[in-house]
Amino acid sequence: MGSRPSEARSRLLGTASRIFYAEGLHSVPVDRIITEADTTRATFYRHFPSKEDLVISYLGAADRALRDRFAATLASSESAEDAVRGITADIAADIRRKDFRGCAFLNAAAEYSDPAHPVHRTVLEHREWFLDAVADLLGQIGDGPAKPAARHLVMLRDGAMVAGCLADAEAVCTTFVDGVEGLLWSRSVPGALRS
Protein backbone atom coordinates (compact mmCIF):
# COMPACT_ATOMS: atom_id res chain seq x y z
CA MET A 1 0.00 0.00 0.00
CA GLY A 2 1.62 3.24 -1.17
CA SER A 3 1.59 6.44 0.78
CA ARG A 4 -0.45 9.35 -0.45
CA PRO A 5 1.49 12.19 -2.03
CA SER A 6 1.88 15.23 0.19
CA GLU A 7 -0.52 18.12 -0.24
CA ALA A 8 2.38 20.36 -1.29
CA ARG A 9 3.53 17.90 -3.96
CA SER A 10 -0.02 17.58 -5.30
CA ARG A 11 -0.37 21.36 -5.37
CA LEU A 12 2.96 21.79 -7.19
CA LEU A 13 2.07 19.10 -9.74
CA GLY A 14 -1.45 20.46 -10.26
CA THR A 15 -0.16 23.99 -10.76
CA ALA A 16 2.60 22.86 -13.11
CA SER A 17 0.19 20.69 -15.10
CA ARG A 18 -2.21 23.57 -15.65
CA ILE A 19 0.54 26.00 -16.70
CA PHE A 20 2.59 23.50 -18.73
CA TYR A 21 -0.45 22.47 -20.77
CA ALA A 22 -1.53 26.05 -21.42
CA GLU A 23 1.89 27.62 -22.06
CA GLY A 24 4.49 24.94 -22.77
CA LEU A 25 7.28 23.30 -20.82
CA HIS A 26 10.45 25.28 -21.50
CA SER A 27 8.81 28.70 -21.24
CA VAL A 28 7.57 28.24 -17.65
CA PRO A 29 10.17 28.92 -14.94
CA VAL A 30 10.26 26.92 -11.72
CA ASP A 31 9.91 30.15 -9.69
CA ARG A 32 6.51 30.81 -11.25
CA ILE A 33 5.27 27.32 -10.35
CA ILE A 34 6.56 27.73 -6.78
CA THR A 35 4.81 31.11 -6.46
CA GLU A 36 1.51 30.00 -7.95
CA ALA A 37 1.51 26.80 -5.90
CA ASP A 38 2.11 28.92 -2.78
CA THR A 39 5.06 26.87 -1.62
CA THR A 40 8.80 27.30 -1.11
CA ARG A 41 11.83 26.51 -3.24
CA ALA A 42 12.99 23.98 -0.61
CA THR A 43 9.62 22.22 -0.75
CA PHE A 44 9.75 22.13 -4.54
CA TYR A 45 13.21 20.55 -4.64
CA ARG A 46 12.30 18.08 -1.88
CA HIS A 47 9.58 16.67 -4.17
CA PHE A 48 11.15 17.33 -7.58
CA PRO A 49 14.97 17.33 -7.71
CA SER A 50 14.80 19.18 -11.05
CA LYS A 51 12.33 20.78 -13.42
CA GLU A 52 12.82 17.74 -15.67
CA ASP A 53 11.51 15.53 -12.83
CA LEU A 54 8.44 17.76 -12.60
CA VAL A 55 7.86 17.54 -16.37
CA ILE A 56 8.12 13.74 -16.22
CA SER A 57 5.68 13.69 -13.29
CA TYR A 58 3.28 15.91 -15.26
CA LEU A 59 3.40 13.50 -18.20
CA GLY A 60 3.04 10.55 -15.83
CA ALA A 61 -0.13 12.05 -14.38
CA ALA A 62 -1.47 12.70 -17.89
CA ASP A 63 -0.64 9.11 -18.84
CA ARG A 64 -2.46 7.68 -15.80
CA ALA A 65 -5.52 9.83 -16.49
CA LEU A 66 -5.69 8.66 -20.11
CA ARG A 67 -5.19 5.02 -19.14
CA ASP A 68 -8.00 5.34 -16.57
CA ARG A 69 -10.32 6.86 -19.19
CA PHE A 70 -9.36 4.11 -21.65
CA ALA A 71 -10.10 1.42 -19.02
CA ALA A 72 -13.45 3.02 -18.17
CA THR A 73 -14.40 3.03 -21.86
CA LEU A 74 -13.43 -0.64 -22.18
CA ALA A 75 -15.45 -1.53 -19.08
CA SER A 76 -18.57 0.17 -20.42
CA SER A 77 -18.31 -1.22 -23.97
CA GLU A 78 -20.10 -4.30 -25.24
CA SER A 79 -17.65 -5.02 -28.05
CA ALA A 80 -14.24 -4.03 -29.38
CA GLU A 81 -15.95 -1.86 -32.03
CA ASP A 82 -17.93 -0.07 -29.32
CA ALA A 83 -14.71 0.48 -27.38
CA VAL A 84 -12.93 1.97 -30.41
CA ARG A 85 -15.91 4.26 -31.00
CA GLY A 86 -15.96 5.24 -27.32
CA ILE A 87 -12.24 6.05 -27.33
CA THR A 88 -12.73 8.06 -30.52
CA ALA A 89 -15.62 9.97 -28.94
CA ASP A 90 -13.48 10.67 -25.86
CA ILE A 91 -10.68 12.09 -28.02
CA ALA A 92 -13.18 14.20 -29.96
CA ALA A 93 -14.60 15.53 -26.66
CA ASP A 94 -11.09 16.62 -25.66
CA ILE A 95 -10.63 18.45 -28.95
CA ARG A 96 -13.92 20.30 -28.41
CA ARG A 97 -12.85 21.60 -24.98
CA LYS A 98 -12.56 25.37 -24.79
CA ASP A 99 -9.07 25.16 -23.24
CA PHE A 100 -7.81 22.55 -25.74
CA ARG A 101 -4.13 23.10 -26.60
CA GLY A 102 -3.35 19.84 -28.36
CA CYS A 103 -1.89 16.62 -27.05
CA ALA A 104 0.32 17.03 -23.98
CA PHE A 105 2.59 14.27 -25.28
CA LEU A 106 2.98 15.62 -28.81
CA ASN A 107 3.62 19.07 -27.34
CA ALA A 108 6.29 17.64 -25.02
CA ALA A 109 7.95 15.74 -27.89
CA ALA A 110 8.16 18.98 -29.86
CA GLU A 111 10.00 20.66 -26.98
CA TYR A 112 12.21 17.68 -26.13
CA SER A 113 13.14 16.31 -29.56
CA ASP A 114 16.25 14.34 -28.52
CA PRO A 115 15.13 10.65 -28.54
CA ALA A 116 17.56 9.90 -25.68
CA HIS A 117 16.13 12.58 -23.38
CA PRO A 118 14.09 11.19 -20.44
CA VAL A 119 11.10 13.42 -21.30
CA HIS A 120 11.11 12.20 -24.91
CA ARG A 121 11.38 8.59 -23.72
CA THR A 122 8.40 9.16 -21.41
CA VAL A 123 6.39 10.37 -24.42
CA LEU A 124 7.40 7.32 -26.45
CA GLU A 125 6.43 4.94 -23.62
CA HIS A 126 2.94 6.48 -23.49
CA ARG A 127 2.57 6.28 -27.26
CA GLU A 128 3.71 2.65 -27.33
CA TRP A 129 1.10 1.79 -24.70
CA PHE A 130 -1.65 3.53 -26.70
CA LEU A 131 -0.60 1.86 -29.96
CA ASP A 132 -0.55 -1.59 -28.31
CA ALA A 133 -3.91 -1.02 -26.59
CA VAL A 134 -5.55 0.06 -29.85
CA ALA A 135 -3.92 -2.85 -31.74
CA ASP A 136 -5.37 -5.25 -29.17
CA LEU A 137 -8.86 -3.85 -29.78
CA LEU A 138 -8.52 -3.82 -33.56
CA GLY A 139 -7.21 -7.39 -33.45
CA GLN A 140 -10.62 -8.39 -32.08
CA ILE A 141 -12.34 -6.93 -35.16
CA GLY A 142 -12.10 -8.89 -38.39
CA ASP A 143 -8.95 -10.61 -39.49
CA GLY A 144 -5.56 -9.57 -40.76
CA PRO A 145 -2.73 -7.87 -38.89
CA ALA A 146 -3.95 -5.29 -36.40
CA LYS A 147 -0.74 -3.28 -35.94
CA PRO A 148 -0.93 -1.43 -39.30
CA ALA A 149 -4.56 -0.50 -38.57
CA ALA A 150 -3.56 0.65 -35.07
CA ARG A 151 -0.80 2.84 -36.52
CA HIS A 152 -3.42 4.29 -38.89
CA LEU A 153 -5.73 5.10 -35.96
CA VAL A 154 -2.89 6.69 -33.98
CA MET A 155 -1.98 8.84 -36.99
CA LEU A 156 -5.62 9.90 -37.37
CA ARG A 157 -5.62 10.84 -33.69
CA ASP A 158 -2.34 12.75 -33.96
CA GLY A 159 -3.61 14.68 -36.95
CA ALA A 160 -6.87 15.51 -35.19
CA MET A 161 -4.99 16.70 -32.11
CA VAL A 162 -2.86 19.07 -34.17
CA ALA A 163 -5.68 20.23 -36.45
CA GLY A 164 -7.94 20.78 -33.44
CA CYS A 165 -5.69 23.69 -32.42
CA LEU A 166 -5.62 25.21 -35.91
CA ALA A 167 -9.06 24.71 -37.43
CA ASP A 168 -12.73 24.43 -36.57
CA ALA A 169 -12.98 21.76 -33.85
CA GLU A 170 -16.30 20.44 -35.12
CA ALA A 171 -14.98 19.89 -38.64
CA VAL A 172 -11.84 18.26 -37.25
CA CYS A 173 -13.85 15.93 -35.01
CA THR A 174 -16.22 14.96 -37.84
CA THR A 175 -13.27 14.13 -40.09
CA PHE A 176 -11.56 12.17 -37.31
CA VAL A 177 -14.68 10.15 -36.44
CA ASP A 178 -15.35 9.45 -40.14
CA GLY A 179 -11.76 8.27 -40.57
CA VAL A 180 -12.05 5.86 -37.64
CA GLU A 181 -15.38 4.58 -38.98
CA GLY A 182 -13.69 3.88 -42.32
CA LEU A 183 -10.94 2.02 -40.50
CA LEU A 184 -13.50 -0.07 -38.57
CA TRP A 185 -15.32 -0.82 -41.82
CA SER A 186 -12.11 -1.99 -43.48
CA ARG A 187 -11.46 -4.32 -40.53
CA SER A 188 -14.94 -5.84 -40.71
CA VAL A 189 -15.26 -6.38 -44.49
CA PRO A 190 -13.61 -9.57 -45.77
CA GLY A 191 -11.14 -8.81 -48.53
CA ALA A 192 -11.11 -5.03 -47.89
CA LEU A 193 -7.85 -3.35 -48.86
CA ARG A 194 -5.47 -3.38 -45.92
CA SER A 195 -1.94 -2.16 -45.44
From TrEMBL:
Domain HTH tetR-type: 6-66
Gene3D superfamilies: Tetracycline Repressor, domain 2
Pfam families named among the record's database cross-references: TetR_N
Segments traversing the membrane: none
Keywords per UniProt: DNA-binding
This protein's record includes keyword DNA-binding: yes
DNA-binding region (UniProt annotation): 29-48
Name of the featured protein: TetR family transcriptional regulator
